[in-house]
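Listing S7. Sequence submitted for prediction.
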Amino acid sequence: MHAAITFMRAVKSKRLEALVNKDEAAKRTTIILEKDERDFIDKLIKEGKEPGIKPLISKMLDVYRSMMIYDWHFPGEYYFGISRIAFVNVELLELLIQQIPKEKWRENGKHMGEALRVSMETTLGLQTSKQENWDSVFNRLRVQGFGDIYVKDKYLLVKTPFIGNLEIWTGLLEGLFDFKLDMKTMVPPLVFEIKAKQSV
């Protein structure tokens, strides 16, 4: 009997110790919501758009952090470090691209990639030409709506690209990563073979 009581006390003590020493990352927080805010969240959950309040808040914080919303000046001035961000319909971009002569598409894409490189290097401190930084670069492009980009061996894969123009994409990626590419597909998902570094 005495041994059982001692064992139970030890188990209880370990549980208490585990609670006290629990990782500081998990803390209970209470949020007081206005009725319309709570109704909106309940509607999202009821419609199956969100699984619950906790996942929704986690997603919102991820978006807040990823898009650096703390740098935004409302209304309408959204910044990512030195770059101003605009939410633009893809159709508008396609109309702009159509005004560029076809023989200049790749060159214009390259200038876009170079601008992205400068933005990422100054804002995030990422040297985009270094392969060890590519996951962070791909994540930044995904957050900004460019699409999902992956690397496999000597190939780049672009899923759900926001611009359908291959020449623009080829130039953009060459300017961003400072290497030559060879297009392997003509329709999404886009596949590019990495050929050689452009500058030494």
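Caption to Listing S7: primary sequence and predicted structure tokens for the chain studied. Residues 105-124 form the longest helix (20 residues). The chain is about 50% helix and 15% strand.
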